[in-house]
Design the sequence.
């Protein structure tokens, strides 16, 4: 294991342990205060260590985005796992194994295809399929359109089946990603909460039992509106690392960002006013580059730098201002640190995370990979 | 192992064995005809199996883009490996191990920093550092500007050092990526070859021994100009898979593309004229999306479809024409195949490749990962 941050090979993904601990605790406190169950999403990091931290050591009540993740966490002693991806028939066999293995394994549906797949393959030995119904608030993500008749039909059919344990509703609440600042997110949260309550009332009117009202995403849960105490579950994920996208939205301050990429300068190109770094698209990912060219690669202590182009293993860096680079300030071989635009996208590119406290490397974590 | 393509989990990366075999053989034949040494790049796939195929079973004379790849191939019996990335001092120790372990291990430099790093750390027991000098033809990639005085200074200092075995020159020849069609690429190749020959003459005039004149990239080596028989080495990589980018440039026909992503439809969104697939940015990569929205996700047998948006695990598909989707034609659960814009970027997202001959899965390959 490298001794300090300066000894880590480049490019590498660094996790600030003191900051992830603080981010994890803050979300636990928020959920306790509001009286909602925290079901943190693992897709951002896919590690046992952060899953343990985010669940306050219980290893219970998590959410994942792939079956590979579900199987990885199940193997590592986690229970009460929600597989939060529209279910299709082709995945039933792997889901069945998880349902039998775990005390609680939940799937998410958003169509009759998913429901029929489950009903065609009932579980045995008193086990039931436990399902969440995903709602689309109109933004066109996965989920049943919230005002449609299908929401009621699907929920009714599910809740009345002897083979299914109907949990309730999940909303991603995409409007928080359009919001700006704490107040904007809080307002978007109020709207999302109202929407879920309206739907809950329709369920009650139709005699549908719905125990769970869950809301997702990092802005929602980082800047909750007090009215969200009527909800039962929070499903945030990215808050463990945060990133430039979340700082721009207002979910966090840039000081809360708990991950960064480290890279080294490998060449000078005065003819093009750039220098080269050993961080290509493979290490950082393209996420945010097209839409947020000035923020998607924010350099620690060098606010005027940005990446303007990539090959697989090399990045081209210039100034945001258009000023001439002072190459004496950036000798070949020197180490730099980049805050990613989207930490989920960047973390997923790495097979090991270097964990540090201050400058010292304290651990190396191995995330799950694949599908 | 899944029996057929229909049984493969989604999303997955598929490799058409008959096509990679044909692509590998064609490049071997091209190099034999022109009398140049083929040094295929492994960065596209990073597998033992394709490395073996591309070297005609010899497992000799390859090129890699990371030290992790170099170590992976060295562990798996490969020799004569060029680590084709601008060398910096921080990597010397790992390079030293490889230099001692292998019969031939070459590094690439493009600056005095790299040269000084090598000279500060000479090898023992009669071993010398074997180096290639990378040339920039003016496009601003890595490499010493080809008309500069530094090219001569670096080559002279390297070739006169008793600790260094100076191989010669490598040019990426970026202008082939700006070319269009066979004729355009051939012309760009002639220009690149002339440039290397001009530089070679400067070397001769300065009494610098230069045995190797190497040219890289897939368009160059797929559509070579006959004048390239004066060169000594070809360094292509992507030709083993090809992709939509190479087909657009004219390096191959779309029928030569030997890899594809398989995905399934997981939801319908008539309100937005889209359907959802279980292929997010993590499985396909963003490479090409911003610049080539209509080509970066070309669907086999469905030329009017394209991906217009991504989350980590979900893609949104609509029509290129703007026509209404016929949802009866695309039931939830059905399997689709996508040719990626850039096969290197897509392959690198996967921890396993499913190999097929016709519809039958014949093998599963595990690529190297990380840095």
Sequence:
């Amino acid at each position: 294991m490298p001794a300090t941050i300066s000894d880590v090979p480049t490019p590498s993904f660094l996790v600030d342990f003191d900051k992830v601990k603080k981010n994890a605790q803050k979300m636990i406190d928020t959920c306790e205060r509001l009286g909602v169950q925290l079901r943190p999403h693992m897709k951002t990091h896919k590690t046992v260590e952060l899953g343990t931290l985010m669940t306050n050591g219980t290893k219970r009540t998590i959410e994942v985005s792939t079956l590979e993740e579900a199987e990885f966490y199940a193997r590592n002693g986690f229970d009460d796992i929600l597989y939060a991806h529209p279910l299709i028939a082709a995945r039933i066999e792997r889901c069945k194994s998880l349902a039998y293995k775990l005390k609680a394994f939940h799937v998410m549906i958003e169509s009759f295809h998913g429901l029929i797949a489950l009903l065609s393959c009932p579980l045995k030995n008193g086990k039931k399929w436990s399902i969440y119904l995903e709602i689309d608030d109109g933004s066109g993500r996965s989920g049943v359109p919230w005002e449609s008749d299908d929401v009621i039909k699907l929920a009714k059919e599910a809740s009345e089946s002897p083979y299914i344990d109907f949990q309730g509703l999940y909303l991603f609440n995409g409007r928080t990603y359009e919001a700006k600042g704490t107040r904007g997110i809080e307002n978007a949260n109020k709207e999302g909460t109202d929407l879920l309550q309206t739907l809950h009332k329709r369920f009650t009117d139709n005699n549908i039992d719905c125990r769970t009202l869950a809301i997702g995403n990092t802005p929602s849960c980082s800047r909750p509106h007090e009215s969200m105490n009527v909800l039962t579950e929070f499903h945030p994920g990215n808050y463990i690392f945060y990133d430039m996208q979340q700082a721009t939205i207002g979910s966090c301050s840039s000081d809360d960002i708990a991950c960064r990429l480290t890279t080294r300068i490998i060449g000078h190109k005065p003819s093009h006013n750039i220098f080269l770094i050993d961080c290509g698209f493979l290490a950082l990912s393209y996420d945010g580059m097209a839409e947020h060219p000035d923020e998607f690669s924010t350099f620690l202590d060098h606010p005027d730098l940005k990446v303007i182009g990539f090959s697989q293993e090399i990045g081209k860096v210039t100034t945001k201002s258009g000023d001439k680079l002072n190459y004496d300030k950036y000798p070949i071989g020197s180490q730099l640190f980049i805050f990613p635009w989207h930490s989920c996208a960047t973390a997923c590119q790495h097979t090991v995370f270097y964990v540090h406290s201050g400058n010292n490397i304290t651990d190396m974590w191995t995330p799950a990979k694949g599908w």
Remarks:
- Chain B touches chain A through 58 residues (CB under 8 Å).
- Residues 181-205 of chain B form the longest helix (25 residues).
- The CA atoms of residues 55 and 170 of chain B lie 19 Å apart.
